[in-house]
Design brief:
By secondary structure, the chain is of the alpha+beta class. It is built from nine helices and 14 strands.
Length: 460
């Protein structure tokens, strides 16, 4: 059953039922023990009265005057209260040598058991007319009678005691049943009231789905509020992604308007002046390159924005860097640069897309190789939950006053060096999207150091 209400009610009711059942059994048992204990005490008091009234005649035979006993039930046949005297002599038991009139012609059939003088034993047995009896017995000895002993028995019908216990059990069961109903009603009310805020949460979710609100609004219990806050955070994140996507789409459309217009004009020139087709073709190729760079720029931004914060994104840095170094050695082979990898934790990872890591490191390495004289070196360190990658070259470096300017989109230090001026700007944009930092500084090799601080892990 998937209903939370049903689960709570079922567990609560089962727990209450078990608790009340155990309580009823315990209380019933305690009451029965108390009643039987009081019954035994009263019966022992009757035994003491019979013992006190026991006399012996001149021949040593026992006798009891019934009139000396206070309870009238001793004289009423089968009244439920009986006494009896048995004789022990030379190991032989003679039952019922004396007995109360209430026994009439019956005898209490109690098994013979060793009993010290004065000690009291308690038995339960069947008596006259099949009634269940409680019996107490005591052995007495007459001084000067030798081995002769007398066993005094007093018995009483347990019917009234059992009836009292049964009445108590009935009242107890009825009371516990009423209590169970009341507790069940209280549990239902508790579940209904306790789960009521979930209906408010459902209405708030419906409002979000229907577009009436941008988030879950309202007052919620302390236990639910963290869930509401997390859900609102997800909604804000999605809204941010949608807004960023719209902005990116608008920026991309705006960026390729000029190349498209230029290509359209070149096509018109070719149509009017076929002899100028070569010049127009070069213009088209140039504008296609510009449009492609803009598309790559915005695709990189979109990919980084989508990957940022995505759980489970981990890219090993060493293989990516090794592949880039091989490419750079081939691209700049004619310059005979020493492109080296310095300190590198083998298990260093980047928390993002592999293509974005290649884009950032590729642009930084390519820029370093363009300006280096003889040597480029890359190193990485793991700093807690971040990854620090430093790219050093032995080129001319950049004046500290101009370092911020070179990060601007389209900025170029030297027009004689090929490029569109987008490399470091793209890197800065991607690093910012990953909530990292890009820093330009002095390199130990004498040129420029580009430091990338990115989200990562491992390499500790």
């Amino acid at each position: 059953m998937q209903s939370l209400r049903f689960r709570l009610l079922a567990v609560t009711l089962v727990a209450m039922l078990l608790a009340l059942a155990l309580s009823g059994a315990l209380l019933g048992g305690l009451f029965r023990d108390h009643v039987m204990r009081q019954f035994e005490i009263a019966l022992t008091a009757q035994l003491d009265q019979v013992t006190a009234r026991l006399e012996f005649d001149a021949s040593g035979r026992p006798r009891i005057d019934d009139r000396a006993l206070s309870d009238p039930r001793w004289t009423r046949p089968y009244s439920g209260l009986y006494w009896q005297i048995d004789e022990w002599n030379a190991g032989t038991l003679d039952r019922g040598v004396l007995r109360s009139r209430s026994l009439w012609d019956a005898v209490l059939p109690v098994e013979a058991d060793p009993l010290a003088d004065g000690a009291v034993h308690v038995h339960r047995n069947t008596g006259p007319q099949g009634a269940l009896l409680m019996l107490v017995e005591r052995t007495v000895r007459r001084e000067g009678s030798g081995d002769a002993r007398w066993r005094l028995l007093v018995a009483s019908d347990l019917g009234e005691a059992n009836d009292a216990v049964a009445r108590f059990d009935g009242v107890l069961v009825a009371s516990l049943a009423v209590l169970l109903i009341m507790l069940g009603a209280a549990a239902v009310a508790q579940v209904v009231i306790g789960l009521a805020p979930l209906r408010g949460l459902q209405r708030a979710l419906a409002a979000v789905r229907e577009g009436r609100t941008a988030g879950l609004r309202g007052r919620f219990p302390t236990e639910v509020q963290p869930l509401v806050d997390e859900f609102n955070g997800v909604l804000d994140r999605n809204a941010e992604i949608v807004a960023r996507a719209r902005t990116q789409a608008g920026n991309l459309a705006h960026a390729i308007k000029t190349p498209l217009a230029a290509m359209a004009q070149a096509a018109a020139v070719i149509e009017r002046h076929p002899e100028r087709a070569g010049e127009s073709a070069r213009l088209v190729q140039e504008q296609v390159g510009v449009a492609r760079r803009h598309v790559d720029w915005h695709l990189a931004r979109s990919r980084a924005a989508a990957a940022h914060g995505l759980p489970g994104m981990r890219v090993a840095v060493a293989p990516v860097l090794a592949g880039l170094l091989r490419v750079m050695r081939q691209v700049h082979a004619e310059r005979h640069l020493a492109i080296e990898c310095g300190a590198m934790p083998p298990d260093a990872t980047f928390a993002g897309e592999e293509q974005d890591l290649q884009e950032m490191l590729g642009n930084v390495l390519d820029n370093a190789c363009k300006w280096a004289r003889r040597r480029v070196q890359v190193s990485a360190t793991a700093q807690g939950e971040h990854l620090q990658i430093d790219v050093d070259d032995d080129g001319p470096g950049i004046d500290p006053a101009r370092r911020d300017a070179v990060l601007a989109r389209g900025a170029r230090i030297d027009e004689s060096v090929p490029g569109a001026g987008l490399g470091l700007a793209i890197v800065l944009e991607l690093v910012t999207l990953y909530r990292g930092t890009l820093a330009l500084g002095e390199s130990p090799l004498g040129g420029l150091r580009v430091g990338l601080r990115l989200p990562g892990g491992g390499g500790r």
